[in-house]
Design a protein that fits this description.
InterPro entries: Metallo-depent_PP-like (IPR029052). It comes from Flavobacterium piscisymbiosum. This is Metallophosphoesterase. The chain has 186 residues and is of the alpha/beta class. The chain has one domain: Metallo-dependent phosphatases (Purple Acid Phosphatase, chain A, domain 2), CATH 3.60.21.10. Helices cover 23% and strands 22% of the residues. It has 5 helices and 9 strands; from the N terminus they run βααβαβαββββββα. The chain starts with a strand and ends in a 12-residue tail after the last helix.
């Protein structure tokens, strides 16, 4: 049975990201290899991965080789650094600016969890007042988490350089102190 994963901000090939994001790698080559390894440790070939942008800052030819080594069916939400990724469009199931996803989950309202996917954090999103989730990247852990919001930065810098499964995200989000602002009436 396939699983669903979410991730963001790998910045494959980006020579300065180790310094900018204080990553623990001694070189961009070490970083790329470790990111590939950690991705494939969790993601199987039949799994789905929603990548929320900034796949790589590298030539299209080099990024194509990296993408071919990654397991899973990859869906790309465009970030602000996607020139090479756009040249590798056939590797992605689709490429969008924004996406609203429904995941079957018998514990969720009406048996489906609604999730808004966007590269950037949004203060309020479609049906957020009903408890829908928002996943984003871009900030490399630099944006303070709101413990009362059902949103989360799923960038690799925030999660030990691994993608997160739907179940891992669910566990994190449901621990938040979220309260619906909607007042139900009889």
């Amino acid at each position: 049975m396939s699983k669903i994963f979410f991730t963001s901000d790998h910045h494959f090939g980006h020579k300065n990201i180790n310094k900018f994001s204080n990553r623990p790698f001694s070189s961009v080559e070490e970083m790329d290899e470790e990111l590939i390894k950690r991705w494939n440790e969790k993601v199987n070939p039949e799994d789905e991965v929603y990548h929320l942008g900034d796949v790589g800052l590298i030539s299209s030819a080099k990024l194509k080789i990296i993408l071919e080594r990654l397991n899973g069916k990859i869906y790309l939400i465009k970030g602000n650094h996607e020139n090479a990724a756009l040249d590798c469009a056939p590797r992605f199931e689709w490429i969008k600016d924004y996406h609203e996803l429904s995941v079957k989950d018998k514990e969720a309202y009406n048996g489906e969890q609604f999730i808004v996917l966007f590269h950037y954090a949004i203060k309020e999103w479609n049906a957020s007042h009903y408890g829908t989730w928002h996943l984003y990247g871009h900030y490399h852990g630099g944006l303070a988490d709101d413990p009362t919001s059902r949103s989360i930065d799923i960038g690799v810098d925030c999660h030990n350089f691994y993608p997160l499964s739907y179940e891992e995200i669910k566990e994190i989000i449901l621990k938040k102190d979220w309260k619906s602002p909607v007042f139900l009436r009889d």
